[in-house]
């Protein structure tokens, strides 16, 4: 900084809109005059949307059944009792009978739900090796430390897939049987077990390690399955496009849920006679009951749900829109009253003067 | 501490100190050390690098790194500016004497001890001790305009022993040692001595500021000089003065620190709650270690206490983002960039002097909006400091200058002066051209008062600049030169005015060399030998010269304030002069008394000896000098007094009135006489004629003073209708401050105007200090222009320097420097107001957005067993403050104008709306914090309920995971927080639009990109396609809209109701502004002090908007724009102020 005096006017600041803080500007004012119409318009729009969302959600059907078997009413209680506190419990199967009085509009999606299961626990959530799951051979042999204690088997072999998430893979299985006429035979309803995982997860994020001699089993040689699994990862499914790390059940499970109560997509029903939905009649779900949840007070549910553009049955959005919309309008009215009352008061004030 | 610079000149220098390398080494470590200190100071660094962190160290470290980088860049920039100015000087070619010859080199190569040759009009490359010049007496002239702005020529002299060494060959023979002080920043202090070895004996010579040539100054009127470099590079006084002087902290910064502590408490309590809940939860094994989530052996076996502590620390790390790390850097940037607007402002540019406003520290911008007390100097601040000689009193007779003539002011008939007729007859004798042909009787007048005028033209330090001056010592003056060719340069405008006046009356000061002063009396040249100058200082308040008249008499001429001269006088018309001085002062003129003393040769010898001793003393030189001066300047014979008028600056009255309307108390602190000060105060509007003026002056004893104070306090309480003005003088003030601070403050607070006269510089600072520490802790501002104001400028919260005629010392030491007093109103009401609003919103918003940011993370812990699972991806955690939400608030804080600047300037009352740090009060802080929490609850629970029983949100029935949930919350948050900023913005330039909508757009584009790729170097691919899947869900879109609207709904409702029911003055002004420019009723508010009056008017106004009837307009128009009304209306206005409201 110099203070020396130079030519006259040399220090004169530039006369530009920016330096003089005179940039052209829009100067909105949030006054009652603007806010009132805004509130009414927003309120009306929200109520309209809310109604739409509410009915859209209401048109979705959902059928759910808790097959944990704690209560003793269900025939799954035997299995539940048998597997008490053990992991893994012995194989057991039970069934759920239900009937549909009318067509359950399709496409119908089959979900399973677990409660009290903290997939979002940090120790649990980090216990995976994305590099291994992407099929990197080096990572296959050397799982990351986060996987511990499911990093190496007791024999010291690397576990593939490693980590707590993979180890706790949900292993109940369901099959759906339809009885068209009362007393008639149960026909198995085809369950489409593909397309339940995100496309990118299935096609890009999860990859099997490169085949050795054309065999996936050889590729996984020298690794151990997770301790809770009864078979190695390459035997998850006979379908070569659905086994190993790209088994869709596995991929779905690996996307950890946000909250302790969560659902996972099990299958879609969209084939043959059932593409329009589940026709009316009696149904039976055969459940292979393997997964212990009672140890941590959890429940297992099976859910049939139809789906709209906005997903499953979710009345929250519609109701919330209605509430906020009505609040807007209510506030608008209160504001209007205040506005008018103050105006009257001011008029009086003026007359007093 | 004394540093010994020893050099054997002419030989290879054995003690070279390479200061240039010190300089380089000093610069860079300084920056590195400085940056972290600042953070530690602000308690921002939390425990960053823990062992078991839920987020990677990079996540937390990156923002910190960013903050440090930006701060380093800012400091680097300032460093760079310094570097450029350094380079200019450093690369300049200089001539250095090396081994007997002249060597051309660059100035950066100058070493301490080098002999440097500087030619005419060159800048000195280092601080040099003058050895010799081309003149025989070893003197040279320099100007220090670039250092302190003083444009006058200053004479510097060499020690006589070295002054003769004018050639290289001669210099070669010199053997000398210089001892001098360690480098210090004060430009006007230098003490040292030179020990010269001549013919085997050592001669010791004192060195003072007069032999030191400062780097940056320029050599004038002298062909060349030789000097020894004593300080080079960063050790030069100029470089030392580059240091930022101000360590002042603004009120905003203080409340910011309070808020930080509150947030720190919130952070710690959240961490404690989480830790405790975690362990209550984990008491049951099924939660602690369910079969699906076993621990490792190591985790099982680690100690409980250790785990507890590490868990607590992990929570701290998880929540640490609630402490807005980037707040600090954003504030820093805002202040730094924002301060440019002050310098750029054309309204603060003074055309006549080509000076714009300077910001010396950007740390205090917002403090300009908080000022409650303004302390202003009078001379040069309120006045132009452009002196015009008006009157004088000689030997008890008063004269007035009318059209360049000295006219006796009609002496009263009862005057006992026998020379009545004589004075009347010569009343029109002196004319400006009188010295050409002078009538007989004028000569008589001059002769009569010969001594007076000689004193005027000899007792000063004025320099002359004219082309002929170069040859000053060489020969007799040509007698036919015209006075108009002479131009006087003086450091004090009073002196200049006096010397010029003397010249008009026929006694022309022609010039001085070091030894002689030449005066032409009525065409006759007289030479006086100048023996000593006893420089002016503000403690003595006088200066004097000792000269030897042509007749051989040794005379002392003294000039100074009447209070410091009259007590020392033993002869002359003391009483009459005193009366005259008081009369002058009443007219608002500045007075100086002039006296002389004749020495016998014996007396003079003693004086000479004592002066020499004092001047060569190495320790306590100043004290010793003061003693000697006291000894010399006594037993004076009074000659008379002069009165000089100082014109008021433009618009001072309006500015003071506006300051007062803004609720600012104005105090005038001046060194002037009581009467002068009062009359200037009256003429500048500081005091009104309607004011009841209380006086606390000439208090001699403690008890009297206390009694008087109590009396004044009683009067104020009895008479609370009228406004009071208080006049205090320096001595009474020191009494009042010593024992009765409380009482005095009580009186002062109840006075609307206070005037302190006869103040010493330190007293000014003390008054400010007293106000500063009074219970209300008001924010003070000091304005001044002279060196005597520096202490008060540095003491006050905000120091403003006026770049005036008394040099730049005040401007250099100030926080802001402006050219005119009137600019204060724009500086405070517009810039201060804007900066305050901007930074207050900035601070509040930062805390708000970080609450929004981290509270969902805290809430999420309740749903994940307090396992420290992060809700957001680490990249989002890192970039939230750096990229997604940083720019809109920065641009807002630079450009926001919540109200038109002209309205702000024309309605100073609006300034009251932001007083007492209102925007950062606990109430507003709580509002923002609660708003942040409620927004966070809406984001989190909105998303939570949306997921509900975890039904699918996708049209294909697939499920989301925890990362999608977090991303949903984050998306809503980024949009809400940005739109919230948009709601606060009132001034939407294209830049605001760009950054606001650009930030949201950037977030989307970035997320699409970030989620669209499997990042090869990242360990986990959690975010792969998460954002895209989220956007492919219709429900998510609806939820985002719903949550954003709900969040802002609360805020809008509050804003609208507030505006409707309790509008602030600013909001009302905004409304008026918006509704064309009907300023009818609203402006009434500017006058009515009472809130109630204003409120009713305001309500009435709102209704009337748009249909303001002509009667309304006419009724209020008369007083609508008080800022520009004339004198009369202000007076009536202020009575209205006090009586009706």
TrEMBL record, chain A:
The chain crosses the membrane at residues 34-55, 316-340. One of its GO terms (cellular component) is Golgi apparatus. Keywords: Membrane, Transmembrane, Transmembrane helix. GO terms for biological process: positive regulation of protein exit from endoplasmic reticulum. Coiled coil: none annotated. Belongs to the CDC50/LEM3 family. This is Cell cycle control protein. It comes from Catagonus wagneri. The gene is TMEM30B.
UniProtKB/TrEMBL annotation, chain B:
Its main location: other. GO terms for biological process: phospholipid translocation. It comes from the Eukaryota. Mg(2+) binds at residues 377, 379, 785, 789. Its EC number is 7.6.2.1. InterPro entries: ATPase_P-typ_cyto_dom_N, ATPase_P-typ_P_site, ATPase_P-typ_TM_dom_sf, ATPase_P-typ_transduc_dom_A_sf, ATPase_P-type_domA, HAD-like_sf, HAD_sf, P-type_ATPase_IV. It catalyses: a 1,2-diacyl-sn-glycero-3-phosphoethanolamine(out) + ATP + H2O = a 1,2-diacyl-sn-glycero-3-phosphoethanolamine(in) + ADP + phosphate + H(+); a 1,2-diacyl-sn-glycero-3-phospho-L-serine(out) + ATP + H2O = a 1,2-diacyl-sn-glycero-3-phospho-L-serine(in) + ADP + phosphate + H(+); ATP + H2O + phospholipidSide 1 = ADP + phosphate + phospholipidSide 2. Residues 91-209 form the P-type ATPase A domain. ATP binds at residues 377-379, 495, 536, 559, 590, 670-672, 758, 764, 788-789. SUPFAM superfamilies: Calcium ATPase, transduction domain A (SSF81653), Calcium ATPase, transmembrane domain M (SSF81665), HAD-like (SSF56784), Metal cation-transporting ATPase, ATP-binding domain N (SSF81660). The active site is at residue 377. It is found in: Early endosome; Endoplasmic reticulum; Golgi apparatus, trans-Golgi network; Membrane. The chain crosses the membrane at residues 258-281, 312-331, 827-848, 925-947, 959-983, 995-1018, 1024-1050. GO terms for molecular function: ATP binding; ATP hydrolysis activity; ATPase-coupled intramembrane lipid transporter activity; magnesium ion binding. It is an enzyme of class 7 (translocase). Keywords: ATP-binding, Endoplasmic reticulum, Endosome, Golgi apparatus, Lipid transport, Magnesium, Membrane, Metal-binding, Nucleotide-binding, Translocase, Transmembrane, Transmembrane helix, Transport. Residues 811-1064 form the P-type ATPase C-terminal domain. Its cofactor is Mg(2+). GO terms for cellular component: early endosome; endoplasmic reticulum; Golgi apparatus; plasma membrane; recycling endosome membrane. It is a multi-pass membrane protein. Component of a P4-ATPase flippase complex which consists of a catalytic alpha subunit ATP11B and an accessory beta subunit TMEM30A. Catalytic component of a P4-ATPase flippase complex which catalyzes the hydrolysis of ATP coupled to the transport of aminophospholipids, phosphatidylserines (PS) and phosphatidylethanolamines (PE), from the outer to the inner leaflet of intracellular membranes. May contribute to the maintenance of membrane lipid asymmetry in endosome compartment. Belongs to the cation transport ATPase (P-type) (TC 3.A.3) family. Type IV subfamily. This is Phospholipid-transporting ATPase. It comes from Catagonus wagneri. The lineage of its organism: Eukaryota, Metazoa, Chordata, Craniata, Vertebrata.
């Amino acid at each position: 900084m110099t203070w020396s005096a130079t030519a006259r006017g040399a220090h004169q600041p530039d006369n530009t809109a920016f330096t003089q803080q005179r940039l052209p500007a829009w100067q909105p004012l949030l006054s009652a005059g603007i806010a009132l119409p805004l509130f009414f318009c927003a309120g009306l729009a929200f109520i309209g949307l809310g109604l739409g969302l509410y009915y859209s959600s209401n048109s979705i059907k959902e059928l759910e059944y808790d097959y944990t078997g704690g209560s003793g009413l269900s025939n799954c209680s035997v299995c539940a009792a048998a597997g008490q506190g053990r992991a893994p419990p012995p194989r057991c199967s039970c069934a759920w009978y239900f009937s549909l009085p009318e067509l359950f509009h399709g496409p119908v999606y089959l979900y399973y739900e677990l409660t009290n299961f903290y997939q979002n626990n940090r120790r649990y959530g980090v216990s995976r090796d994305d590099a291994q799951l992407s099929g990197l051979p080096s990572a296959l042999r050397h799982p990351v430390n986060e996987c511990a204690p499911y990093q190496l088997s007791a024999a010291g072999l690397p576990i593939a897939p490693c980590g707590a998430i993979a180890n706790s893979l949900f292993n109940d299985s369901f099959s759906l049987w339809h009885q068209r006429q009362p007393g008639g035979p149960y026909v198995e309803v085809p369950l489409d077990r593909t397309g339940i995982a995100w496309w990118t997860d299935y096609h890009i994020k999860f990859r099997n390690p490169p085949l050795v001699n054309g065999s996936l089993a050889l590729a996984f040689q020298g690794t151990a399955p997770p301790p809770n699994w009864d078979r190695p990862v390459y035997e998850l499914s006979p379908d070569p496009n659905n086994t190993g790390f790209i088994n869709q059940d596995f991929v779905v499970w690996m996307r950890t849920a946000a909250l302790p109560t969560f659902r996972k997509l099990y299958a879609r029903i969209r084939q043959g006679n059932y593409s329009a939905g589940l026709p009316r009649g009696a149904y039976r779900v055969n459940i292979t009951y393997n997964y212990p949840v009672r140890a941590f007070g959890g429940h297992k549910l099976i859910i049939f749900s139809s789906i709209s553009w906005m997903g499953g049955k979710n009345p929250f959005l519609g109701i919330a829109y209605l509430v906020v919309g009505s609040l807007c309008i209510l506030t608008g009215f209160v504001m209007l009253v205040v506005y008018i009352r103050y105006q009257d008061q001011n008029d009086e004030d003026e007359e007093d003067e | 501490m004394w540093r010994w610079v020893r050099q054997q000149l002419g030989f290879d220098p054995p003690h070279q100190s390479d200061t240039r390398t010190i300089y380089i080494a000093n610069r860079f470590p300084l920056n590195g050390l400085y940056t972290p200190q600042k953070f530690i100071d602000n308690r921002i660094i939390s425990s960053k690098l823990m062992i078991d962190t839920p987020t990677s160290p990079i996540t937390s470290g990156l923002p910190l790194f960013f903050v440090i980088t930006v701060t380093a860049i800012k400091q680097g920039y300032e460093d760079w500016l310094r570097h450029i100015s350094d380079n200019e000087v450093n690369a300049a070619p200089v001539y250095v004497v090396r081994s007997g010859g002249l060597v051309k080199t660059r100035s950066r190569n100058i070493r301490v001890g080098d002999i440097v040759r500087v030619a005419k009009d060159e800048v000195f490359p280092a601080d040099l001790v003058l050895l010799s010049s081309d003149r025989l007496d070893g003197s040279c002239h320099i100007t220090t305009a670039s250092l302190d702005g003083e444009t006058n020529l200053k004479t510097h002299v060499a020690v006589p022993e070295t002054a003769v060494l004018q050639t290289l060959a001669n210099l070669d023979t010199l053997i000398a040692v210089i001892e001098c002080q360690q480098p210090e920043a004060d430009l006007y202090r230098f003490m040292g001595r030179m020990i010269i070895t001549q013919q085997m004996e050592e001669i010791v010579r004192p060195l003072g500021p007069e032999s030191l040539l400062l780097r940056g100054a320029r050599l004038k009127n002298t062909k060349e000089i030789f000097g020894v470099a004593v300080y080079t590079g960063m050790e030069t006084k100029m470089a030392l003065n580059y240091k930022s002087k101000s360590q002042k902290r603004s009120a905003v910064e203080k409340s910011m620190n309070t808020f930080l502590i509150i947030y720190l408490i919130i952070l710690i309590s959240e961490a404690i709650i989480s830790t405790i809940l975690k362990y209550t939860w984990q008491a049951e094994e099924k939660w602690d270690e369910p079969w699906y989530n076993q621990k490792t052996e190591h985790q099982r076996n680690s100690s409980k206490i250790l785990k507890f502590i590490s868990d607590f620390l992990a929570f701290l790390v998880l929540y640490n983002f609630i402490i807005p790390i980037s707040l600090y850097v954003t504030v820093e940037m805002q202040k730094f960039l924002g301060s440019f607007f002050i310098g750029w402002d054309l309204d603060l540019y003074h055309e006549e002097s080509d000076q714009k406003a300077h910001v010396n520290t950007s740390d205090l911008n917002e403090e300009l909006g908080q000022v409650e007390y303004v302390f202003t100097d009078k001379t040069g601040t309120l006045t132009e400091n452009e002196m015009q000689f008006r009157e004088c009193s000689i030997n008890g007779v008063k004269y007035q200058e009318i059209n360049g003539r000295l006219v006796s002011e009609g002496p009263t008939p009862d005057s006992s002066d026998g020379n009545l007729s004589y004075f009347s007859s010569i009343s029109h004798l002196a004319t400006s051209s009188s010295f050409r042909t002078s009538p007989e009787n004028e000569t008589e007048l001059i002769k009569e008062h010969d001594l007076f005028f000689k004193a005027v033209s000899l007792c000063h330090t004025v320099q002359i600049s004219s082309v002929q001056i170069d040859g000053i010592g060489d020969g007799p003056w040509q007698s036919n030169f015209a006075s108009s060719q002479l131009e006087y340069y003086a450091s004090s405008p009073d002196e200049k005015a006096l010397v010029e006046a003397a010249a008009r009356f026929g006694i022309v000061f022609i010039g001085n060399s070091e030894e002689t002063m030449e005066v032409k009396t009525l065409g006759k040249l007289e030479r006086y030998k100048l023996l000593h100058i006893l420089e002016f200082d503000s403690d003595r308040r006088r200066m004097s010269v000792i000269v030897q008249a042509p007749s051989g008499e040794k005379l002392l001429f003294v000039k100074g304030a009447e209070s410091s001269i009259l007590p020392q006088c033993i002869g002359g018309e003391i009483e009459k002069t005193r009366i005259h001085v008081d009369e002058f002062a009443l007219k608002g003129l500045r007075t100086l008394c002039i006296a002389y003393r004749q020495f016998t040769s014996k007396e003079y010898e003693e004086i000479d000896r004592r002066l020499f001793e004092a001047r060569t003393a190495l320790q306590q030189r100043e004290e010793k000098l003061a003693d000697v001066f006291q000894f010399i300047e006594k037993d004076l014979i009074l000659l008379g007094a002069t009165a000089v008028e100082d014109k008021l600056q433009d618009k001072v009255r309006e500015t003071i009135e506006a300051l007062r309307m803004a609720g600012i108390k104005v105090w005038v602190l001046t060194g002037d006489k009581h009467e002068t000060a009062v009359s200037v105060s009256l003429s500048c509007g500081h005091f009104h004629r309607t004011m009841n003026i209380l006086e606390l002056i000439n208090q001699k004893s403690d008890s009297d003073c206390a009694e008087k104070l109590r009396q004044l306090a009683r009067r104020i309480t009895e008479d609370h209708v009228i406004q009071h003005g208080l006049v205090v003088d320096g001595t009474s003030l020191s009494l009042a401050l010593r024992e009765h601070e409380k009482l005095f403050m009580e009186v002062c607070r109840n006075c609307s105007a206070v005037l302190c006269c006869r103040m010493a510089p330190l007293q000014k600072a003390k008054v400010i200090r007293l106000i500063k520490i009074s219970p209300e802790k008001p924010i003070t501002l000091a304005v001044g222009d002279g060196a005597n104001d520096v202490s008060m400028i540095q003491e006050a919260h905000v120091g403003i320097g006026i770049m005036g005629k008394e040099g730049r010392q005040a401007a250099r030491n100030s926080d802001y420097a402006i050219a005119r007093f009137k600019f204060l109103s724009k500086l405070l009401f517009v810039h201060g107001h804007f900066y305050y609003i901007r930074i207050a919103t900035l601070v509040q918003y930062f805390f708000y957005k970080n609450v929004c940011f981290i509270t969902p993370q805290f809430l999420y812990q309740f749903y994940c067993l307090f396992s420290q699972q992060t809700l957001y991806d680490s990249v989002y955690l890192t970039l939230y403050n750096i990229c997604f939400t940083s720019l809109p608030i920065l641009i807002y804080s630079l450009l926001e104008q919540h109200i038109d600047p002209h309205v702000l300037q024309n309605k100073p009352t609006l300034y009251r709306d932001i007083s007492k740090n209102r925007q950062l009060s606990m109430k507003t802080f709580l509002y923002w914090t609660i708003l942040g929490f409620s927004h966070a609850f809406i984001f989190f629970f909105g998303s939570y309920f949306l997921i509900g029983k975890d039904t699918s949100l996708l049209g294909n029935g697939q499920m989301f995971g925890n990362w999608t949930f977090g991303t949903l919350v984050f998306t809503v948050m980024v949009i809400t927080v940005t739109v919230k900023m948009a709601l606060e913005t009132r001034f939407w330039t294209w830049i605001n639009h760009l950054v606001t909508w650009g930030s949201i757009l950037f977030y989307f584009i970035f997320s699409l990109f970030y989620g669209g790729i499997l990042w090869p170097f990242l360990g986990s691919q959690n975010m792969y396609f998460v954002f895209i899947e989220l956007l492919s869900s219709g429900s998510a879109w609806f939820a985002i809209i719903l949550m954003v609207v709900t969040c802002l709904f609360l805020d809008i409702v509050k804003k609208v109701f507030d505006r409707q029911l309790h509008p602030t003055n600013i909001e009302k002004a905004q409304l008026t502004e918006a509704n064309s420019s009907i300023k009818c009723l609203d402006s009434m508010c500017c006058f009515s002090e009472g809130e109630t009056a204003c409120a009713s008017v305001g309500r009435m106004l709102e209704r009337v908007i748009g249909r303001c009837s002509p009667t309304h307009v006419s009724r209020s128009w008369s007083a609508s724009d008080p800022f520009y009304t004339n004198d009369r209306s202000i007076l009536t206005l202020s009575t209205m102020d006090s009586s009706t409201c």
